[in-house]
Write a structure and sequence with these properties.
Strand content: 25-35%
Number of strands: 12
Largest sheet: 7 strands, antiparallel
Mean pLDDT: 89
Order of helices and strands: HEEHEEEEHEEHEEHEHE
Oligomer: single chain
CATH topology of the largest domain: Rossmann fold
CATH class of the largest domain: Alpha Beta
CATH superfamily of the largest domain: Nucleotide-binding domain of ferredoxin-NADP reductase (FNR) module
Low-confidence stretches: none
Number of helices: 6
Number of domains: 2
Radius of gyration: 18 Å
Helix content: 25-40%
Amino acid sequence: MRHGWEGAVLKLMRAKDFTFTVTGAEQVTEHFRRVRFTDGGMLKATGVHPTMWVRVWFANAGRPHQRGYTLVEPDAEAGTFGFDFAMHDGPACDWALAAQPGDTIEATVQGSAFTAPDPLPPRMLVFGDAASLPAINSLLAALPEVPATIWFETAHDSEGARTLVLDPERHRLNLVPRKEEGGHLVTEARAALPELIDDPAAAYAWVACDFKSTRGLTALLRKELGVPKHRVNAMAYWR
């Protein structure tokens, strides 16, 4: 599949292309499907880091359509990993529902990075939803010594949160129903964060929601609460 102008731009940015091969699929919950792959040599070429994601290419009415997916259970030695697809209408989910062992899909690696906060915060402040759930699990696993408060936005009751890997002694989970196009999540954060941030310079927030929520949370953290830019890791996972 040709990747259009987006692929051309990524090539100029020295992105690397790989082909993944499906090895199997399973329905994790009613609204989450996990597809497993061999990596076509990607992990040995790029290495693995927490919250690592790649751009995957799907056909959409004859045109290339890219979506970012976080690696689930990456194994660099075996060259395997999975993607969790949050089920909804769209070409990516249509592909995941039909995927069979031996099917292939093209992907581009560019833009994914992670730097652990230094110094470590007294508590991580984590905001996400179904799209960023694998990345949240990866983040918490990478920094097991740091307590975390997680705000998880839900569209299907609390179903998505069932696959969060939490330590009840170190992690506090707040389930937030999706309302007001994500505005409700920002409202909940505005009410709770002042009591959790004693020293803005020492705080650390990781934000990966839809574009509107991510923008609102980033403004709240940086402009209203004074958390330094380098202590807010924010990326809109979808629009």
